[in-house]
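May I ask for a protein sequence together with how it folds?
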Amino acid sequence: MDGLVPKHSRYIAEGRNKGRNKPRSADLIRASPSYPRTPAKFPASTMSSDEDDLITGIGDIIFQEPPDYYPPPKPATFESRTLQTGETLQLRLVGHNPLWGHHLWNGAQVGTDYLHDHARDLVQGKAVLELGAGAGLPSIAAAIWGAKQVVMTDYPDEDLVENMRMNIDAAKNVLPRSANIVAKGHIWGASTDPLLSCLRPGKCAYDTLILADLLFNHSEHAALLSTIQSTLVHLPTARALVFFTPYTPWKYDKDMAFFDLARKGGFKVIKVIEKVMDKVMFKDDRGDELLRRTVFGYELSWEHLNV
């Protein structure tokens, strides 16, 4: 990221809240209280040791924030969701996260409903991988509904990954004893070997991929597609499920550009669902309200295996 971490590590590029861009991770690092703030160093030959001491003292004054300079971290919140099969999940959301893991997105909710309605083909006995999982609602539901194995992933931020694990633990009372579900960090476009190594012996890739409300990140479409290509098994029954809402309607064409890229990358793309929600997620946002309430769902399958 912009001089701090490798370019492929960029996760946040474009935002959806009130039409403003979300900060890049590099900017977040620079703004973090843990990011080193060091006063400028002057060549030793240009000033005396007394002057050095004076500059250092000034630096301490300039760069030392008062104890209440940064607001306290926001506490975690909880969302309760009852699945179509009757199980109630208490989902923990991080108090605030620059990667937007502190919301339970509409795409995740509609995607979970879609999994239930097509559980026989997409879930039961399948190896399931979720990208950008956040709270992990679709993943946990898949594990309840008979997935052989589930791996939920999000950006390898400590709070996000730990939050996913906490939601798995909180669902133990409704998960089958045989449930195999884990949480991992993953950067889109990075090596998928750690994800593939989670698979049970004899399994080379995942049967079903879940992507819920990720397409807003337009600059990362290629990286996201790369992860899909590397993890989706080459079988006619394999599916990558993509659910999204145009939270910034004026960028709807950029959202949809992902599917053009997917077609060029060897996938057949089929629209499978369009659902209008009762209300928008962010009432003060601008742009077409109907689009901001609508969740679109698409299935990606391997073009060369379609007959």
User: Anything to note?
Assistant: The mean pLDDT is 81. The longest helix spans residues 49-63. The first strand starts at residue 77 and ends at 82. The beta strands are 77-82, 88-93, 127-131, 149-154, 181-185, 208-212, 239-244, 267-276, 294-302.
